[in-house]
Structure of L-lactate 2-monooxygenase:
Amino acid sequence: MSSSKAAGPGPGRSRQTQIFVDGLGGTRPLVPVAPERLQEAARRKLDGAAFAYLAGGAGAERTMRANLEAFSAVKLLPRRLRGSAARDLSVDLFGHTSPAPVLLAPLGVLELAHPEADLAVGRAAAALGVPFIFSSQASEPMERVAAAMDAVQAGAPRWFQLYWGTDEQVTRSFVRRAEAIGAQAIVLTLDTTLLGWRPRDLDLGHLPFLRGQGLAQYLTDEHFRAGLAGVTLPAASPRPSPALLRTAASLAAHGRKFGLSLPQMRAAAAHFTASYTRPDLQWDDLSRLREWTSLPIVLKGILHPDDAREAARRGMDGLIVSNHGGRQIDGEVGSLTMLPRVVEAAGDLPVLLDSGVRTGADVAKALTLGARAVLLGRPYAYGLALAAEAGVTEVLRNIVAEFDLTLGLLGAHSARDLGPDHLA
Ligand SMILES: Cc1cc2nc3c(=O)[nH]c(=O)nc-3n(C[C@H](O)[C@H](O)[C@H](O)COP(=O)(O)O)c2cc1C
Ligand SMILES: O=C(O)C(=O)c1ccccc1
């Protein structure tokens, strides 16, 4: 995704020009360009429970709104007569050059958006050369997604997001598997040591994992599977309701995919719920992860500057400023609001940001405030819902094209040029 392909002159047409030229022949973009219309189109397409899970946040969703408001509050300040015809969008991430300062955030249970789930996202990411962070809660095992990406572009960049569970054998096994599939970094998520209070899901009584969804990393893990034998289950209901029958059908379907019986799947859902996270994880535990792997370790969910300093002291390699898209604590601060202080505290550690990035101008704002790159979350899930791989590709291309134009209009030559000079 060089700048010449994303926008501006050069061998390929800019995305913007392409859209207008296509419009002459009556062809419209596959997915709406504006973020609100993108979300609305996905809402219309998806069933209610799936959309609730993807779009919903914690509590009254105040933090979800605060994330967007934090972007609104930052105002860019352009410079004149110093722009360049082609911009360099690339950034360096742990020794690898990325074509644009965007990564695909780890999103669990992408099968809720589209049956091709992580495979479609992986192919889109690989074609553009943008890193895809595989979720611990993915719908497809990391080995399959890596292979699908390699089929598009050998060695296409992938990272792995880790939830630290109570069975450390499983946690360690995930890290080993991530190394084996060529992950370039381990992202340890720190803000979901407990599942947030999410009214949209609570009102529907809907948690996908209990139906066997979003468990692909676990169901394909020998250590997790070894733990299933010890799980005791309540007796199955003798006269199951239609809803319970649908749950059993979903569990059985996921079991078939991974060679597990229905009773094993019931055990797996229970075992996962009891073990996927550790509310009592401590800073000292990180020393073990540091010993397990020499891959860069990136802590996701950092908001407090003192936590950034602690991470640096503990030998971590990078930080992601994030509040999990407002899905965890209702009332916590908007993610972008904390970025400058975290960047200052982080010293040499690269700082990424997510939660509320919706447009290319948002990407520019995060970079002017010191982020090396941003993670895109919900918008690509909506693209996936609307048009599978092609939908993800379009969402990414649109955001990167707007970022490139914003860079040019600000009078910046490269993504690395953005800084305080471009803030009002
Ligand atoms: C449906 C959904 C599932 C998610 N699953 C995970 C996950 O498995 N692991 C993780 O670290 N973050 C997860 N996140 C958080 C994202 O990585 C990211 O922090 C968040 O989506 C950013 O907010 P935004 O999408 O509103 O910009 C999830 C977010 C959503 C919306
Ligand atoms: O949905 C999420 O945001 C998420 O990351 C998660 C992960 C594990 C269990 C429940 C939710």
Notes: Residues 108, 137, 192, 195, 276, 324, 327 surround benzoyl-formic acid (ligand 2) (CB under 6 Å). The first helix runs from residue 3 to 6.
